[in-house]
Amino acid sequence: MTFGAFVEFAPGREGFVHISELEWHRVEKVEDVVKTGDPVRIKFIKVMIKVA
Known about the structure:
Elements lengths: L3 E7 L2 E6 L34
Antiparallel strand pairs: 1-2
């Protein structure tokens, strides 16, 4: 994905991290920072709840 990465923060629970939030400096390609399966630390900034 060119504009960010999906992260699993709990079993069966995923969130999205925009490319601009991956590093303090400008990131050209997500793959330069994180690869599939890499452990990452996350901080929740916004929670959006789906209501059925």
